[in-house]
Specification:
Elements (H helix, E strand, L loop, with lengths): L1 H11 L86 E2 L13 E7 L19 E3 L2 E5 L5 E5 L5 E5 L18 E4 L11 E6 L4 E6 L14 E3 L12 E2 L6 E2 L2 E4 L2 E2 L12 E5 L5 E5 L28 E3 L4 E5 L14 H6 L2 E6 L5 E6 L15 E6 L5 E8 L5 E5 L11 E5 L14 E5 L20 H13 L15 E3 L13 E3 L4 E7 L3 E7 H6 L28 E7 L1 E2 L4 E2 L6 E7 L4 E7 L27 E4 L3 E4 L6 E6 L5 E6 L9 E5 L2 E8 L12 E6 L6
Parallel strand pairs: 1-35
Antiparallel strand pairs: 2-41, 3-4, 4-5, 5-6, 7-8, 8-9, 9-10, 11-14, 12-13, 13-15, 15-16, 17-18, 18-19, 19-20, 21-22, 22-23, 24-25, 26-29, 27-28, 28-33, 29-30, 31-32, 33-34, 35-36, 36-37, 37-38, 39-40, 40-41
Length: about 725
Amino acid sequence: MRNQAYLFGVLLTGTILGTASPGHTAWAQSNASSETIASSIYQDPAPDTPQAPGVNAANLPDIDELPIDQLPQAVPQESANPKPEDWPAYGRDDQATRYSPLTQITPENVGQLKRAFVYHTGVLPPKGKLNRLAAEMTPIKVGDSLYLCSATNDMMRIDAATGEEKWHFHAHESYDAIPFTSACRSVTYYTSSTAAEGQPCHNRIIEGTLDNRLIAVDAEDGKLCEAFGHGGQVNLMQGMGWSVPRFVGVTSPAPIINGVIVVNHEVLDGQRRWAPSGVIRGYDAESGKFLWAWDVNNPDNHHQPDKDHYYSRGTPNSWTAMTGDNALGLVYVPTGNSAADYYSAMRSEAENKVSSAVVALDVRTGEPRWVFQTVHKDVWDYDIGSQATLFDYHADDGSVIPALIMPTKRGQTFILDRRTGKPLPDFPVVEKPAPHPGVVPDDPREPTQPWSVGVPRLGFPDLTEADMWGLSPLDQLACRIKFRRAHYVGEFTPPTIKQPWIEDPGYNGGTDWGSISYNPQTGIMLANWNNVPMYDQLVSREKADQLKLIPVDVPEYTPRHGITAGNAAQAQTPYGALVGPFWNEFTRVMCNAPPYGMITAIDLKAHKVLWQKPFGSARANGPWGLPTGLPLTIGTPNNGGSVMTAGGLAFIGASTDNQIHAIDLKTGKTLWTDVLPGGGQANTMTYAVNGRQYVAIMAGGHHLMGTPVSDALVVYALPEQKK
C-alpha cells in the first residue's frame, strides 16, 4: 500500500501543509549553573496590567457567583437520547459517537446523491486582512431546523430541508479578535428547567466566542436571553489578568452536564511562558452565573479571583471539544501542555501532572476525580485535539464497563474506564523507554512514555535515511542531507539547540480535532489521521530577538500567516523555537514518502485493523502548491472528522483534495465524491426530515491547510421520489 502511494507521489505530489513560519518579568534558567538570562528586548507586561481595549469585547460587567446548592435541577436534554432523525450535539449525542442510525443512503444508492441546497454564512476574509478563516463548523439539527455558527460567531437557524434562513444573530465580532484560527466548531442546544415551554428561551442556543463571550439566544427567534448573564452574555475574560485580543478564544462547543456549562478556551501557542491561564470554568446554564473554576496552580480555590488577583498563568489549556457524563457527573477535559510548548523546565509539578492528559472534573465542584496522561513532560506540542468518545464496553466475563476512547496526535488510542481513568484490562497501557535525558540544560526528558498496546497504532515505523524522498534524485539527496543534519532517534526525539531535530509524529499527526466516529452496535472505530513530520530547533533568546520572534501582546508584534503553525517566541524562557514541516523548502514537498493522510477502520473488540487506506487524492495538490488535477489517491494531510451510518457508509471531507467522500464501511472503498466550493475541513453530519436523509458539511476552507476559502454549508440528499 505504501509502495503504491509512494509511486503515485513520485509523479505527482507536493505537500499541502500551508505556510510555515505553527511572576511578571522575563526570567529563566539558561544552563546548569542556574544563571539568569537577560530579558528580551521586548517588554514583558505584568499580569496585573489592565487588559487591553477590546479584550472585554462587549464591555460586560463582572458576573456573580452562584452557590452550587442553588443550581436548578436540570431536565433531560435532546442529546441524551437523540431521535434517529436528529443531530442535537456536536458529536451527535452525549457520547460523541458521530454515529447515525439512518439507513436511507446505502452503498447501492450513494452514487445518486445530489446537492439539496447550499447555505452561505456571509463570512469571508475582509479585504486587506490576512486569511485566518477555518470555520471547522458542524451544524446541529433538532426538529425541522439546523443551528450553526459562522467563522466569526454569528449564529443562524435555517430550515433543515430547504436551507431557508429563519433567523440570524450577529455577534459583531472583530476580525482582529481571531486567535490562531476562526474556528467555531459548533453550538450547544439546551432546554431550560426554569423557563417554561412556550416562554422565551425555553430552548436556547449557547456558544463561546473567539472574543471570549458566552452567549445564549432563544432557539425560536435568535434573540438574546435577557435573564442569562448580562442581557444574554457573559465576559469570559473576567479573572484572566493581562491579555490582548487574539491571545485567548473559545473555539469548541461547551458541553452542558446536569445544568452546568463547562467552558474551556484556546490560548495562543508559542507566545510566552506566563501566557493567560488555561483555567476550566463552570457556569449555570439558566442564569449564566459562575459556579466554579479548575485552576491548575490554585487547586484548592475554585472561586473567581477578586480584583487584585487572576487565574494562574501559563497553565495547560484545553481548546478542543469536551465530553460529559450526566450519570457520573463528570466532564472529560482533553488538555494541552503548559505555555512555551518546546521548553518545560519552568513548569510546576502540578502542571506536569495534568498536561497532555484527559482530566475528569466533577461538574458540581470543579475538583479533578482522575487524570490519565498521554505524554509525560510534553515538549512536542502533543496536546490532545480529539474529543473523547464514550461507550459501554462488554467484557468477556459479561460485565459492562462505562468506557472512554481517547485518540491522540501520537496515533495512540487509549481506552479507559471513565469512572476511574484506569486502562481497561483488555486495553493495557505500558510505559516504554523513551530517549532521555535530552540535551537542553536543566530540562531533562522523562525516561518512559505511555503506549496503548491493545489498540492498533495509527502510524508508520520510525523514519530512516532510506525513506527520504523527492520529486527528483536531487530533491531526494537534499532531503537525505537534511535528515543527516538533524537529530533523530525515533519518536520522542528530545528538543535540541545546536542542530534541528525531527519530530515524528508531528504536532498535526495522528488524530486531531476531527476526532473519531464509533459504531456502538458493532464496536468499530473509524479514524482519519496524518503522517506529517516536523523539523524543529530551539534558538537562544538573543537569536529569537534577532529573528523578531515577538509575542502577540507587545506593540512591535505584526500578524503573519500561520502564527502557531511555525516559529514561536516563547518569551520569558531562555529559548525561542523554529518549527516547520520536514520538507524541501524549494518545492514544498515533504521529505518523507507519501501517504501523508490515512483512514483506518478498527474492530476494538477484536483489537485488529479491518482495513486501512491512503486518504485524499492529488487533484488539488502538487509541488509549489500547484494542483495536478489528477484524481489518484496518494493520501493528503487532513483535518476534520467522519460520520458513520447504519446504512453502511462513512461520510468525510477533511482532506486537501477539497472533496466530500462516501466510503463503504465494509471495504474502505470510496464509492462517491463531490468537489466542494471550499476546503472541507469540518466534521460531516447527517440527519433526516420527513423521511428524507441529508448529509451536510461546512466547506469553509482552512488557512493552515492551504485550501480554498468559502462560506458555504453544502447539504446533499438522494433525488426525491416521484409521487
